[in-house]
Amino acid sequence: MNLEPQPEPSAASTFLLALLQKNLLITFVVIVLLANVFSIVVGTSLRLTAFTDVGYPDSATLLRVIEFVHSGRIYPDFNLPPYLVTIYGPLTYTLLSIPYRLALALGVTPEILMRLFIVAAFCLCVFLVFLISRRLYGSGLVAWLCILFAISSLPLARWTTQLRGDFLALAFALLSVYLFLVAKGHRLTCASALFAGMAPLIKQTFLAVPVALIGWLIYRRRYQEAVLWSACFALTLIGGYAFFCWREPLMLKHIAALRHPVLEYRKALGISWYAASQPVVTFGLIGGSWLFGSALRNNSSYSLTAWSHGSWPCSLRFRWAAPSTIFGNLCWYRRCSPGRHCSACNETRTALPYS
Fold first, then answer.
1. Predicted local distance difference test score (pLDDT) of residue 320
2. How far apart are CA 305 and CA 136, in angstroms?
3. Helices marked H in 72-184 — which ranges?
4. 68 phi and psi angles, rounded to 5 deg
5. Looking at the domain assignment, is residue 280 inside a domain?
6. How many domains would you assign to the chain?
7. Where in the sequence is the domain holding 333, given as residue range(s)?
8. Residue 295's pLDDT is what?
9. CA 124 from centre of chain
10. Integer Cα distance of 136 and 140 in angstroms
């Protein structure tokens, strides 16, 4: 029997152990996220009735919508006043013209109704995040936690009412992911590709979803489905731009003008630092590191998937991480979800490790 005195645990380890045992750490994280969500709700409410621009490019977008409603043109000659290049996809202005026309018919301020339209798109994104998270994790409680992570980034307080196409495109992209998860036949698969193809028609950079989904289908050797999904996506995207190009003779001229932007590297570094300083990013890095370490200790082949699980909040801020994050979550869902047989673990999982 070993009677040697054991070293006393440090104060830091004792404190962390107490937090984990009493769930105080989770409570603290939830409180911080709720405080950020409250700030976003207040900021959104205050900016709904703002008479000035909430942010760039409110005035430019509103001008293009007004010109489209009255002249039918989204891409006018930018060599004439006001010398403005159309920066977003054509579907952005087509969708935003709906609340503008409705406001004119009702006799209300168009800006308010257009901002409500953006807020509605944001709420739809939140609802789709809940549906996708519940499908991935198999837990309603974890799905609510995912919502807190998704909407607790403080810059969203300005973005939720800006007249731009980001949340419109994001809603189509998230709807594509959800339909892909629930698809059991070719109809929903084609619908998923259709909505994924409409997202770049709103904002040209929303290509993370098709890259991730096509890559996952190839990884799973579902080549026929990958060809079908890619074909539907390509037909939607190419057909959409072909239609608008036929309708808008100067669209290609506007697109060519955007190929030579004036880059502001110092401001980009400031924006990146501001995004990385958000609490949701810190929590995502901590959670991803913990999952990664757990996978390594258990000799699991899912270390990359575990990291992608924890890095989901980071990918919301840095789009280059989005394809790998979606890909990793799909791998976890298809191979390590509750009630599914995991070929790597050689067992049927009954619950996720953190659900």
1. 38
2. 13
3. 90-106, 110-137, 140-150, 156-159, 166-182
4. -70, -40
5. yes
6. 1
7. 276-355
8. 61
9. 12
10. 10
Domain-located, residue 91: no
Model pLDDT for residues 267-296, shown as the tens digit of each residue: 777 777 877 777 777 777 776 677 667 666
Q: Cα–Cα distance between 109 and 99 in angstroms, integer?
A: 10
**How many CB atoms within 10 Å of residue 2?**
5
Q: What is the 3-state secondary structure (H, E, C) of 296-307?
A: HHCCCCCHHHHH
pLDDT value at 217 more than 50: yes
Tokens for 29, please give them: 């994280």
Residue-wise pLDDT for 304-328, tens only, equals: 333 344 344 344 333 434 444 455 4
Residue 320 maps to a domain? yes
Residue among 193, 159, 135 nearest 56 (CA) = 159
Q: Check: CB of residue 123 under 8 Å from CB of residue 130.
A: no
pLDDT at 334: 46
Asked if residue 312 belongs to a domain, the reply is: yes
Amino acid at the residue 302: Y
* 176 φ/ψ angles, rounded to the nearest 5 degrees: -65, -45
Which positions ≥6 away from 197 have C-beta within 8 Å? Answer: 210, 232, 233, 234, 235, 236, 237, 240
Note whether 327 and 220 are within 8 A (CB): no
User: Residue written as tokens 């935003």?
Assistant: 96
Looking at residue 5, its amino acid is P
Average pLDDT over every residue of 104-129:
92
Kindly report the three-state secondary structure assignment for every residue of 52-74: CCCCCCHHHHHHHHHHHHHHCCC
Q: Which amino acid makes up residue 291? A: L
How does strand 347-348 pair with strand 341-342? antiparallel
Decide if 176 contacts 192 (C-beta within 8 A). yes
Task: Supply the DSSP string of 1-53, one letter for each residue.
Answer: ---SPPPPPPHHHHHHHHHHHTTHHHHHHHHHHHHHHHHHHHHHHHHHT-SS-
CA distance 272 to 286: 19
- 119 vs 159, 205, 321, 332, 340, CA distance in Å? 9, 21, 25, 31, 37
